[in-house]
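Closing statement on the acetoacetyl-coenzyme A sub-project.
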Amino acid sequence: MSDQYPLFALSEEHQEIRKAIREICDAKIAPAAAAVDEEARYPQEAHDALIETEFFAPHVPEAYGGVGADALATVLVIEEIARADVSASLIPAVNKLGSLPVQIGGSEELKKKYLGALAAGQGNFSYCLSEPDAGSDAANQKTRAVRDGDFWVLNGVKRWITNAGVSEYYTVLAVTDPSMRSKGISAFVVEKSDEGVSFGAPEKKLGIKGSPTREVYFDNVRIPADRIIGEEGKGFTYAMQTLDHTRITIAAQAVGVAQGALDYALGYIKERQQFGKPIAEFQGVEFMVADMGMKIEAARQLTYAAAGRSERGDKDLTFFGAAAKAFASDVAMQVTTDAVQLLGGYGFTRDYPVERMMRDAKITQIYEGTNQVQRIVMARQLLAGIQSTL
Ligand code: CAA
């Protein structure tokens, strides 16, 4: 019975994937996490280890040279990396975010070229949607793309671009028809080496310090006409469809960092003695860790359920992506804050990892759409009558 109906349990294959990535994290990623944060440097050791073990962009289909991990497997990879270091987890997460518009809308040639290069580890892929005046209001794009014979010419500024400067490839949203708002936006692949592409100074951030966030400038960047992704005017749709899938990877980061903080706190409270006994024996502390574990498990189950929707392309994916992201990131903030509390004064210092985890958790409530935007998205779905297909 259980073999036929493995309801709400990971398959053996998925469990193996978790085991494999956890081993890599323990050996190569976790040991560097504190230094990566302290020095605010890109986690090159994680980058190299992920390429070597084919977890760099695991979502790329086999047809384009990837390993073809399904949405749940990709979530497990990101969750486990975030448990060790959220900055490093942005490598596979943003590689999926940046390249998914190509996978969703791109021509066969574009997919072969760019998904192939990504799968081969030739470069990271970033996603350029946000602008100084287009944050939550993503359709308010100012970057322009103008057709000039066999080329498109791009001008504009993108802001908050994750892994900018490190990435070789960029999906860039730009206005091709200013009279049409969201229907006048198109998507393009731009390469770091294209003339006229440059980057701002790295942002000085609260957390995820190992993941560079920079502005990207496009100054008369001329790209071949076939670098447009799919149809002209469909860019905003591809961008939103992409986020439906990738908000689940942010939920995975949130679950991972919360689990990392809980695991550390559990070890600590068993060791730390006050009033003549380990603080784990105080009921107030027990209640705290029980709530932390319970919330993480609820967030995890919602995230995995959302990954199933992503894999199948269910019609309630938009709701589930937003719900998983908002719920799990709120849990991550609560759990990491409680982990700092459990460690007391020690938790407040950089000698212990939980303060880094708390700082890193905060971004999961903000990026890929603030949790306020997620609630707008969820409410619109509910009002349109789209409910769970379970
Ligand atoms: N799938 C397909 N189409 C969609 C869609 C979806 N999920 N969401 C919207 N669309 C379509 C709509 O159907 C609509 O087309 P029609 O007019 O034909 O119906 C069109 O797109 C415009 O949609 P809306 O009218 O809903 O657009 P809006 O201006 O009201 O904005 C919004 C909606 C949900 C607020 C959207 O702007 C949004 O998601 N904002 C947040 C932006 C965001 O998440 N940014 C993240 C940046 S990336 C990042 O953070 C990455 C990182 O660092 C790691």
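The chain has ten helices and ten strands. With this model delivered, the sub-project is considered complete and its resources will be redirected to Aim 3.
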